[in-house]
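During the reporting period the student researcher (J.K.) took over the structure-prediction task from the postdoctoral fellow and processed the backlog of single-chain submissions. One of the processed entries is reproduced below for the supervisory committee.
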Amino acid sequence: MTAAGPAPGDPLRWEPIRYFVAVARAGSVMAAARQLGVGHATVLRNVARLEAGLGLRLFDHVRTGYRLTADGEDVLDNALAMEAQAEALLRRASGKSPEPEGRLKLVLADASLFDPMPLLEGFRRAAPRIELAIEDAGEAADSRLADLHADAAIAVTNAPPDELVGRQLSRIRFGWFAAPGYLAALGGAPSADAVDWVVWHGGGATGLGERWQEEALHRLTGRPSVALRAGRHAEALAAVRAGLGAGLLGADAAAELQPLPFADPGAGVGVWLLTHPDLRRSGRVQALFDFVADRFHGERPGPPRRRG
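J.K. obtained the following structure tokens:
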């Protein structure tokens, strides 16, 4: 990116920084432009202005989008701190506004992968006049929101829909687990060939369906013995706890199970808070996003799509 930068000694303005943060979050200029409601040329011009003003290259333009350079990573840390302070000032300035109230409808992903209740309990204490209505949408929470069935979604996915905006809350790591009693019946630490396996269908949005698990299993054993195929991670977790076999499960959810000494499956999935751009500034949705921004202050957001 090239553009005429500010003259030496000119103050650094927030506007180019805001565009830089948007590209870092979105992973591409086009996605950032859609989220900001401007043309892609405006985004390019502002990022180029920031690069020229700092005398740094902030992004590498790769086939799959824009990737932060080492300098870009450092600048993003400072920019996120500036953004958090600006949002805090705006929230303080709007403190005299009426407290948001009414019903906020959320669709939630499989709670066995990510338990949202501690987050929602804290939000209710911060916004006691908001009534929460939740609906379990399995792993397809983002698609339910895209069809306007809710105000916001907590979705487990590596590919949030382009038409939604939001931020990544967490990332789920996976590992191989079995119940202690099941392993004891097999005489301790068994080989992968001696284990019965539980697999689950992760849904199209997560990118972690049965195929991913089957491929991971075949890296462990040539002929895996599948005891049960579950519809969701929650059922697979229950089956493994009951001793039907071993499974590839979310590490946090399987804390009471025994990890197996097999190769790291090398995959994970993001947990996202998502909403439609038209709803982002509504009072109740804004209150939720403000609370999440405070709760996850300082955590770097991931790009809304996992690319290449």
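The committee noted the following: The chain has a mean pLDDT of 81.
J.K. will present the remaining backlog at the next meeting.
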